Amino acid sequence: MKRKGNGQQRKTIAKVLRYIKRYWGYLGCSILLAAFTVAMTLYLPLLIGDALDLIIEKGLVDFDGILTILKKMGVIILLTAAAQWIMNACNNKITYNIIRDIRKEAFDKIERLPLKYIDAHSYGEIVSRVIADVDQFADGLLMGFTQFFTGVLTILGTLGFMLAISVKITAAVVIITPVSLFVASFIAKKTFSMFKLQSETRGEQTAFIEEIVGNQKVVQAFSKEDDMLDRFDEINERLKKCSLRAIFFSSLTNPATRFVNSLVYAAVGIVGAFLVISSAESGQFGFTVGSLSALLSYANQYTKPFNEISGVVTELQNALACAARVFELMEEKAEEPDAFDACELKEADGRVSLSHVYFSYVPEQKLIEDFNLAVQPGARVAIVGPTGCGKTTLINLLMRFYDVNSGEILVSGTSVRKMTRKSLRNNYGMVLQETWLRSGTIRENIAMGKPEATEEEVVAAAKASHAHSFIRRLPDGYDTVITEDGGNLSQGQKQLLCIARVMLLLPPMLILDEATSSIDTRTELKIQEAFGRMMQGRTSFIVAHRLSTIQEADVILVMKDGSIIEQGKHEDLLAKNGFYAKLYQSQFANHPA
Q1: Cβ contact 460:436 at 8 Å
Q2: What superfamily would CATH give domain 338-427+538-593?
Q3: Exposed (0-12), middle (13-18) or buried (19+): which is 299, by Cβ within 10 Å?
Q4: pLDDT in tens, 566-589
């Protein structure tokens, strides 16, 4: 398990480095500026030591020499501050360019993911990966760029300066160094899996909140507030536990590295003091108080990066855990691309046939088996049957949201696998029971499939769908801005807008899946008349639970367990007194035909 976690971490780092390579210019500039900043910062203690050595005793102070040193220090501090500002700007540029690229590619991947992935994962969990996890990754990456390079260069540079002053003291420091490296390594190994679990649990919580907020009316209608609160508390408790474990191990970093820092500082002070005394007694003054002051400053600067780097490593564990979840999404297998020789379906003639079609969402649960259907141009095909019989699945296959496991679907005599998905779907007009509206004006929502439509065309489509009257009553009419999913519009009004979209396009084939389920009876009768005119000469697939709406269909397919068990006209099916007749009688028990 540990080896698997380390392998995943290495793969994640390699993927992050591929993004960093795109901005190698900024990265190189950042490293050069970090080196300059470190060199200037480490040069200051030498100047301070020199200044101390110019203070010999009371009354014997070289003020001119000290003033020269102070001027040098002022210039160095100004140059260092400017270099740090530019370095931070480069780091920000790298980080937020990488985050922009990752989010863009992640969103692009979502657009290309097969529908089965979207169906199998909650929306909130996907949103959490693209938003929350990427934000966490950005925080860790920025800290890494800001402190990691500077910390490493500070350690190396400090050792160089210390070696120039005293080999013995430098040796004492280096001997204690592995303790800090061991602490950092131990914490890094422990925290990655914990932060990954924390990120996954946070995604689960985000998904749950998104689900409950979006369905608050249903929760209140069934008085499930307490149950949902208990469920939330359970997720929240798990998040608390895994977060506490991750934070506990990461919080060991500071005290552990500070302890090592103190050991190094004490070692430099003790060994340095003896060297100063020894040097004074010998009368050589090779190792002065100024040298000891510089070494103590270097010892402090040498150990400080270990503390910072350990903190950075801990933060990077969290960042890499979040990045791993984002990369998992980005590496999901995309929807099978159109065949390289796929043709464009220009104008379908309405012929649709399904030959020996087999399909199931999961292999162990069979759904559609040996399904055969031939539809002539302009035919009205009604599809009825109990819940779960495969009606909506058949629509998904016709639109090629899912591909069949075996068998073939032909449109205008050509296999749907041999034509582009876009051209296939452009020949269908689809109205579902579930409505979808986007943020924007009423006009933009109606003209979604035909952005170039004129004002007259949009109004004509709205009138045909009987949406014009309620649109006129809105504050700004067709320019009224609605929020995502329709805002304060009723379910029936939202469905009328979706019907208006199809009325505007008038494609050669129609799919109506409970298209009038949320509309009042009076308006439904008018829309059925409009549908009747629209379906003239167009192949139409009508999924309906209310059998009164499909009595005029050319053929009614009665489905059960993924197969067609009856088919024919309304009167013929009633005369057979089979499954359809029982469905009809259950709806119209008090109103015999």
Answers
A1: no
A2: P-loop containing nucleotide triphosphate hydrolases (3.40.50.300)
A3: buried
A4: 888 888 888 888 888 888 887 765
